[in-house]
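This section describes the prediction task in plain terms. A model, or a person checking by hand, is given the sequence of a single protein chain and must write out its three-dimensional structure as a string of tokens. No templates, partner chains or ligands are provided. The sample shown here is typical of the held-out split.
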Amino acid sequence: MADSTGLQFVSPYAFEAMQKVDVVRLAALSDPELRLLLPCLVRMALCAPADQSQAWAQDKKLILRLLSGVEAVNSIVALLSVDFHALEQDARKEQQLRHKAGGSNGESILVSQLQHGLTLEFEHSDPLRRLRLTLSELLAIMNKVADSNGEFFLKSSELFESPVYLEEVADVLCILQAELPSLLPIVDVAEALLHVRNGDWFLCLLVANVPDSFNEVCRGLIKNGERQDEESVSGRRRTEALRQLCQMNPSQALNIRAMVVEECHLPGLGVALTLDYKPDTADEAVSPLVSYVSGLLLGTNGKVRTWFSMFIRNGQQRKRESSSVLWQMRRQLLLELVAILPRSRSTHGPNDSDMEDVGSGYSGLREEYVVKASALLRLYCALMGIAGLRPTDEEAEQLLQLMTSRPPATPAGVRFVSLSFCKLLAFPNLVSTPEQEQLMVMWLSWMIKEEEYFESAAGVSASFGEMLLLVAMYFHSNQLSSIIELVCSTLGMKIAIKPSSLSKMKTIFTQEIFTEQVVTAHAVRVAVTNNLSANITGFLPIHCIYQLLRSRAFTKHKVSIKDWIYRQLCETTTPIHTQLIPLIDAYINSILTPASKANPEATNQPVTEQEILNVFQSSAGGEGGRGGRARYTITTQLLILYYILSYEENLLASTKQLALMQKKPKSYSAALMDQIPIKYLVTQALGLQQELGGLHSALLRLLATNYPHLCLVEDWMCEEEVTGTLPLLRRMMLTSNTCRYTQSQLHQAFQKLPSSSPRLMRILEHLTLLSPGDLIPYADALTASMALLLEPAVPRRILQTLNKLWMGLNTVMPRRLWVMTVNALQPSAKLLRQQRYSQNDLMVDPLIVLRCDKRVYRCPPLMDIVLHMLNGYLLASKAYLHCHLKETADFDRQSQTVSNLGLPGQPDTPEVTREELKNALLAAQDSAAVQILLEVCLPTCEEQQLGANTESLLRSMRSTTPGKVKPGCLGPVTRMGGDEAEPEGGLLSDLREVQCLICCMLHQMFIADPNIAKLVHFQGYPQALLPLTVAGIPSIHICLDFIPELLAQPQLEKQIFAIQLLSYLCTQYALPKSLSVARLAISVMGTLLTVLTHAKRFSFFMPTLPCLVAFCQAFPPLYDDVAALLVQVGQVCASDVATKARDIDPLIARLQYLKEKPQEVLSPGGGSSKLSLPQRTAEELVGADPDVQLCYRVEATFMDIISSSLHGL
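The expected answer:
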């Protein structure tokens, strides 16, 4: 709006005085300034005020005194004397008339036919006509604006253009708007004034006389504005008007700028207001313009970013105009950039002599300008990368000068160099001439030379040297997308960088500055990051080493990296850095996998065993011992543990490839693994999961694969009991001044048992309040004295407390504890021979655990410990054999293949044979353990004399137990009624408790591997244990699946065992499946009756006929089949007896009677039998014929079936 140039606008001082109605300030205004505010002041003096206070009365007098000397006041008073109600009515009629006429300029109610032009008519008119003329013209413009549908027009009007009458017209305009606010809303009036010349001046006067409407007018103009204001005349006029308003009220400029951003309209206005803004206290760091534009382009609002980027792009398409806001912004930014450049910098590249003295022609960037320079660099990156700004030659030259300047060695200086380097990579077109390229190469060389000094002087861990190294590695491995990602991450913005644009930089890096050999040699010399953790951000040496490991640069150039990685792992702390685990994985891969097949020796060296031991030296002695302050952090120990376990796993997985290359990397020894407190470390990691990231879960995965005996479910559940809330509360009771017991005191208390039982109990109870880690020093004393607890008269409470302490220690040092315990529980004969087992011995032969003192088998608390160790070592043995097989298989096969070349008749041993042998060994091992444990369940002779009976477990299961023949006895089978008393050695005996513990373990073994159950039952075990195993092992029902197969075995003993086992299973599990298997067993018995010889028939049916009682008791529908079988057996036996001319009872007749009328055998009242059986003494039966014995067994079985069925009713 250049047409309003030369007119006097309302000053900020005058506007503030009007806003606050400061009469003193108003009185200080000059006459020209006061003239602009007269409409409001006159109305203020003449109208009745709402404020009736004394203070306002005094101010009003001052205003009247102020106005008394101004001649123009009289004309304004005359304007206020008009009848505005009639004027408003006429105006509304004219609006209706124009609406009907379609907006054409026809008859006017407000103004009759004009004789002269508007200016002359206005000059000669009275106040009322002046009001009518101005109102008519204003309404015409407002109507045209409403009908224009957003198309801009400039209305030519004499009334608003004549410089002579501008002040009078402004007076009339202000009075009209003040008196007719409903007819002339101030926002609509402001919009109409944009379409006339001098509109911004009229608008400022109007708002100055109604200062409360400032925000309303500005918001209305912004809402109705264009999205891109510099594209059209209307946008530029609107921007200029709002800019003048903000110059009149500068305190609201930033609020108006915020409205611009909120509405995403008039971007040029936002920039213009920022250019006009003069803060009270200048910020030395960053200018308002840099802050504002950076906030728009780098903020989180994508809509705002796109809107302002479009402003930049559209502004560049027009020719350069000095009046354009965009060019004003660019000029201001360039001035700020030049202002902070080092004064001695030349715009030309240095010559060769300058390269020798780098600092001679290049003064550094001043420290107070570094932050501002960084902000400017990021802003130019955003303008060029996001908004698409194309820099001019001058801008590009000055930017390059700033980027290649040398800041001081401060954290801000490190940041500036990193930003400059990334800007060079993002916009390589800034370097266009050979001189500029030489300048850039010199600056990069300076970066390489000074990065160590910067890192030490600035006191930061992440310097720009690592970024240089990382970019060089990416260029060598052609990972251009990684470079782009790195640049965007450092700059903090997403920029579209074409990979092809990096070709020049790639050539410079890979051929002039950083050859691959230089990169690897330099990387090894880079110092490790002290106390590396996730809290240290930026690009660190670890990123560079990781990329070099992935690209196999170290092995290619024969540079050893082992020491650097070891030192970095030793300098770590929590929270763990995310790059550490990938670094270890890449390092392990470089150890095991050669860089190329042509050179199989091109691998890195593994960490030595001594270096590993050094990390665990403070805790290795006690598997997490508390001997003193650890030299290395728990993070370092966990990372080294992860390295060892992952190395061993990858070594096993790579055996085939290594065998083909005739290369066998060394595995870490078992002695080393024994000294590492694996379980203790994993337990510590459990409480640090949040700080360790994914390390804890990775360790658990490796443990489950390689050390399954350290991942027992029982151990996890036990840990909950040890580390739960209740133990914590008990531990809180342990005050610091509590009496502390030493290991020697504990040892002495054990030695003096049983007299020292009370003192020993006090010590053990005290130890239960300690944490598992604090118990470790007492482990030797606790385990070494275990054998002493097997002596008689040792209180049960001591044994139980020892069991509890052992389980607590098992959570932190299981492997060492197990070895100590096995050696302590050896029989006294072995102890005298000083035979000590090692961890390896126990993994090779887990059954050593059961070769303990026999008294342990009747000491439930110690037996619980033995079973726990047995379960662990069985799992450990499986893992050990699996690893051993995998380690040796591929190498043995490869060597055998090489040795057999040209030697026919020596085929390779198939791999499946080795696997089968291993599985057979494991099965034999498991079944042997089960058989030994079952044998332990049998009562000894002393226990039998005391009345212990293994069948009492089934007492509640059924009222009648099939008759049994004790080994070595041939005699009548005593039928046991439901009411018959049986001597019990006490259900709470040690034997019973041991049996329960063993049954619990067998149950878990059968669930884990059902094949063990099948193998054990095919082998068989004493029939006296069947009641115990069926009642005590819930998972034994799986035997129903293979009993048919067991019945089909040719050995008579297995068939007998199958039928006896089935009889107990049918009683315990009366299921449809049991019924079908029982039917099959009866059928098999019938078949065998016809094929067995005389001697075998007696051996088979004597122990199996009583089982038919259980079949009938569990499944009454089987009665007919069983009765038929019994009659058939009786007939065969009776016929054999008859051939020998022996006179026996009429057995067959009795059996037929029993079969047909079983209900008449016993009287309904339970009285004596109607069909009495002859009583036979044991002596008679022992000397009797086997067929005779079998006949009586058949008859006795019949009676048992009938008796059990009637008792069941």
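For orientation: DSSP finds 66 helices and no strands in the chain.
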